[in-house]
Structure formats: C-alpha cells, structure tokens
Model the fold of this input.
Amino acid sequence: MEEYALGFGPGWDEHFKKFDLSVKQQIWKKILRLQRALKHRHLKHGNPCFVEKAGGYRIAFRVDEEGKTKKVVFVGDHKQYEKWYTG
Done:
C-alpha cells in the first residue's frame, strides 16, 4: 500500500491546540491514518480539499498525487468546520 507524506498548512491547528488532550489524541490518530488511506470524501462547495471525520471533528486536507503528500489545512469541530468552508 502506498504511503503519503504528511504536511501541515499555516493555521491548521488554530482550533486543535485548544482541544482537550483526549480529543487531540483521537484527531491525531486519524491524521496519521491519512498516510495510508486512499479513498476520501471530497469537500463540496468548490473547495479543492478532502475531509475526514474524527468523531464530531473534521480534518480538511489537500492531496498531491504526484508528490504523494497530504497537507492538513484545517482541524476543528463541525461548527468551526462549516464556518471555515463557507468562508
């Protein structure tokens, strides 16, 4: 199975850094799985990102197939996520 390198965009952790340790651990486990996962749900609304759920939280990221990288650009709860993708 192909592995992807992980990267992080500026400000990705704006909300993440405020979460409790247990929530951070849950989200971080999901982020690490992005290295292997091949099928993701594409974010609608014209945004070039994909999204993964981690409980009540969302991880938005971009995929560079040529460079085999996935760049996390947002992590937050569902309400924060809706505000983020609607701009």
